[in-house]
Amino acid sequence: MKKKRLTLSNKRAITGLLFIAPWLIGFIVYYLKSLILTVQFSLSEVSIGETGGYHLDFTGLDNFKYALLQHGTYNQILVQSLIDVVVDVVAIIFFSLFIAILLNQNFKGRTLVRLIFFLPIIMNAGAINDAIETARTLLQGGATVAVGDAASAAGVNMDYFLSIFIDLGVPDGLIGYITDLVARIYEIIRASGVQIIIFIAALQSVPGALYEVSKIEGATAYETFWKVTFPMVSPLILTNVVYTIVDSFVTSDVVETAYNTAFTQYNYGLSSAMSILSTVLVCFILVVTGAIISKKTFYYN
Amino acid sequence: MQAKVMDMKIRFSKLNENSQFQNEKKKAITKSKKIMFSLVRFLILLGISFVILGPLITIVSHSFFSSTDVYNPSAYLIPLKGTLENYSLVFKRLSYVKTLSSTMIYVITLMGLQILICSMVGYGFARFDFPLKKLLFACVIITIVIPTHTIMLPLYMEFRNFDVFGLKELFTGSAVNLLTTKKPMYILTLFGCGLRSGLYIYIFNQFFRGLPKEIEEAAFIDGAGSFYTYLRIMLVNAKPAVITVAVFSLVWQYNDMFYCKLFSLNAKSLMSLSVSTVQATIEFVDKVKDPMISQLYLNAGIVLTIIPILVVYVVLQRYFIEGVERSGIVG
């Protein structure tokens, strides 16, 4: 019998599979299995055995019901984190696009400024933030700290400016939004390091010929921005929105609550249910925003 | 008199018509516009830089404060009685050299693994066709998008009772507990499920797709195997992507708290964990009960923690920014 020989494309398929094998194994053994287990946990009551094993009792949707209807703070935290994410995403995207455009220009000391602006990527560290937070809480105790910070950072009489805007008839909601942003400017700057990098990369890849043409045609800087720059970087806005949403959810209180439920109260089932609820919500937000943005996106190629 | 004024007027209008003067005027306007614009830009950048650097400056200056300076309202940013005592105590309590070296070994090993594994997988996705490729790549995207905390419990349990196919239990009756060691992280990274591995795979995939196919074909004709081609030709050409991933993984891994907490690593072996507990340690061991003063030690600790990563960042930042610009993040 003649041995069956593989075609070249078959051979290449096998090599390709070999290349991705480490990830594939890891994905199936750790990721997929864990994902399925989490769903299973969330649908049952988990009891931990003496030797470290566990026992599952199927309880249906009880954990979800408990998390949403009976747990003291969970739904409040969930809604608050969602609102925070939505508010932050808008601010971060606009801020980082603005900064990227500034940093993309040629001026003296650009390297230094870039160095400073990417510092938050390093400084935005779980460890250091944790430590500072603990120190602050020890000093003054929790909630009062944030308010005091905002006031001292601004260094101006906010009430006066607020009253001017209210007299001018600016809607209260808008004022609330803006003051909220100003108070959290540090957090927004800190969270937009990676986004700035991505936008700078995007700006660099815009062909210079487009700018030359618009200059010859007599377009103003404003028009150039809206007709050339913005459409050209718009595909990256989607990437940045996705990154921002995921990133801000990872550091939000929802995760903290789920973590504490698991490791201080040992209620694994409830914790899994909380995780799944928040993940589903994040995915929902991602799909909705993704659908909206990709409709408006302009693709050059 | 009137004739003189008329004469002046005529002269002036002539001057206005003079195209050279017109040009000069226009030039002056654009120049002043430019200056105004760069002034505004300077102010904006200065303000934001201040917001970024502000806390850092406070931390650094407070780390030199002595205990009398804290309660002295005239000492602002510059200590009146500067001291290095904060540093020397924190240095001891953190057991700095030991902690730092063990952290660095951990972080750099993981970085090496991330680069090797993620570039391999990225290359596999970029250059080879195999069944279900699109679905599998969607799975990579899923690992980026779904927050890791969703799967933290099963991961915890997996390594609480670590066992490959239940072999160990078959022979010795119990599984291995890998918690409190660094092995879980090594294992996860080795199988492409480490800290943000999905993102790195994506970056490498985009970069390799942008490289010309001709180099590989030339290598193939010269008789190089696929793996050899990847290692000696593609990986060398992917320098920007490699540096991007290296910096990201180094910094993020160094700062990571999530996995450290999840696998309950020993606080003494990692910088990020050590520094988050150093204030409590000093309050407890050295009987510094005043939080205003114990905070000074924390500031010194934070400075000591940031310095190594800052050095790496400053050294690599030029390549890093170039790398981001050239690597395929932009697609």
Automatic annotation (TrEMBL), chain A:
InterPro entries: MetI-like, MetI-like_sf, UgpAE/MalFG_permease. Its main location: membrane. One of its GO terms (biological process) is transmembrane transport. One of its GO terms (cellular component) is plasma membrane. The chain crosses the membrane at residues 12-32, 77-103, 115-132, 194-213, 225-246, 266-293. It is found in: Cell membrane. Residues 78-294 form the ABC transmembrane type-1 domain. Keywords: Cell membrane, Membrane, Transmembrane, Transmembrane helix, Transport. This is Carbohydrate ABC transporter membrane protein 1, CUT1 family (TC 3.A.1.1.-). It comes from the Bacteria. It is a multi-pass membrane protein. It comes from Anaeromicropila populeti. CDD domains: TM_PBP2.
UniProtKB/TrEMBL annotation, chain B:
Residues 100-315 form the ABC transmembrane type-1 domain. The chain crosses the membrane at residues 35-57, 103-123, 135-157, 185-204, 236-254, 296-316. GO terms for biological process: transmembrane transport. The keyword Transport applies. GO terms for cellular component: plasma membrane. It is found in: Cell membrane. Keywords: Cell membrane, Membrane, Sugar transport, Transmembrane, Transmembrane helix, Transport. It is a multi-pass membrane protein. Belongs to the binding-protein-dependent transport system permease family. This is Multiple sugar transport system permease protein.
